Each structure stands twice: as structure tokens, then as C-alpha cells.
Amino acid sequence: MSSSDRQRIERVTGSRRAKLTPAPGTTAEPIPADETADAATEQAAASADPGPNDERMRRDVPPHY
Hints:
The protein is mainly alpha-helical. The chain has helices at residues 37-47, 54-59, and strands spanning 9-10, 19-20.
């Protein structure tokens, strides 16, 4: 692995934090390219099925409220 294949640390003027350059072979997209919209809709449909104690969980309030 050569030094050009690695991320570099860049100083940001006027900031206390530095930033990294993008890693080789990555994109700036927040969603992985292999995830599809169909998988997201299947997951949403699966969570819509009511469970045996869903109503109780919705009524319960933590003591600090």
C-alpha cells in the first residue's frame, strides 16, 4: 500500500478539528450502493405488524417525564 492509497489528514483553517480525505474506493453517498429501496419498504412493512405489547409500550412513560 503506497502513501497515495491512504487517507490524509487536512488542517481546517480556523477550526479546532482536522478532517480526513475520502478513503479510496468510497463515495460521499450516505446510503450504501448495494441497498435498494425495496429492502427499506420490506423493513417498514415488517415493523408495522402489531406485537402483543405494543399498546402498553406506547402508554408507558419514563419516570423522568
